[in-house]
Amino acid sequence: MQDRIVTLLKELVAINSINSTLSGGPGEKEIADFIHNHLRRLGFEVQVQAVSGARANVVALVRGKSPSPAVLLNGHIDTVGVEGMPLSFSLRQEGDRLYGRGAYDMKGSVAVMLALAERWVRRPPEANVWLTFSCDEEDRSLGTEFLVKEWLPALPARPGAAIFLEPTEENIGVAHKGFAWFEIEVVGKAAHGSRPEQGVDAILPLRAALAELDRIANELRSRPADVLLGHASLHGGKIEGGTELSMVPAYARLQWERRTLPEEGPDTVDGESERVAHAVANLAGGHEVKARKIFMRPPYRTPPGADVVGRIQAASPGSQRVGLSFWADSALMGLAGIPSVLFGPIGHGAHAVDEWVSLKSLARVGAVLSKVAAVN
Ligand SMILES: [Zn+2]
């Protein structure tokens, strides 16, 4: 299997599939066509989903020997950019390490899925397997949103479980945090610095916002930690405002990110944002305050007792059950009612210039998934 993984990964890495929201990013259409052609030649029922513009998913059904609920495997086919990364689109092997953009996050896993498909042509798995390749994981998850909203409801039978092959160092990811982005804008009135009485300072009221965020951050640290995920947290994201040093600033904006735990509902973080807005509004000074939530993604915890966890564990006894620090598409699938976990290879440098994945680890991941699919 190792030879096929290297060959496939070489071809996948050679296709630039940088997320099109990033500089130099053409989107996923070309890599989706490559995967589509490869699976079609193998004889599978395969479909390219046009998600929007040059963004596309691929889904394929591998029919198993029995009609038990399908296992869904997922890999995202976009990558982050390549700035500062030499030879980013040509796979380089040094011992067990395969270097190249996306090798670890996560074209290595996509190569494993394709290599498994090749094996299943000759020896079909026990259960049906859905191979899903999604676009836009590195930005707003348009691909998995499409799968969840358009594709899943139209299926005659829902998959029984989903495995996201994100790099987990061969551990079983059973929880990850969510995140929410907030901002507060303060509008004042511009004036010359020599005549402050004619203006309304928009920057100074942010002190109340910063103090309130600091209080909230302390409260989060003082709550009991989640066993797998630690504490919920927040950090200042961006701050801007003012035009000239000699002017009273008419505008300021503060944005922050909150990382959420599975048991925290949206109301919790919305309430914090309101506290921040009130703290600023309650200051004297004549400024206006606007607060809003910019974007959010839910946290996720695999349902306790989900059968898929035991199946991976049985096939890979050394794997630990872990919480993951990053957000992943699995939350969207999980919250659509498909018990989801993450399981992927060992490597280093996701989003970094020295990204590599372990070839032996990719082969082990393939062997584990092959066993998982072999169990009815
Ligand atoms: Zn990833």
Describe the overall structure.
The chain is α+β, with helices and mostly antiparallel strands. It folds into 2 domains: 2-175 and 300-374, Aminopeptidase; 178-297, 2-Layer Sandwich (Alpha-Beta Plaits), CATH 3.30.70.360. The chain contains 9 helices and 19 strands. It has helices at residues 2-14, 29-42, 103-122, 142-151, 206-222, 266-281, 307-315, 330-335, 359-374, and strands spanning 45-52, 55-62, 71-76, 92-94, 97-99, 129-134, 161-164, 172-176, 178-187, 191-192, 233-241, 247-248, 251-260, 288-297, 300-301, 321-324, 340-342, 347-348, 356-358. A 6-stranded mixed β-sheet has the order 1-2-6-3-7-17, with helices on both faces. Strands 4-5-19-18 form a 4-stranded antiparallel β-sheet. A hairpin with a 2-residue loop joins strand 4 and strand 5 (97-99). The protein is elongated and about 80 Å long. It starts with a helix and ends with a helix. Bound molecules: zinc ion. Zinc ion binds at residues 76, 105-106, 137, 166.
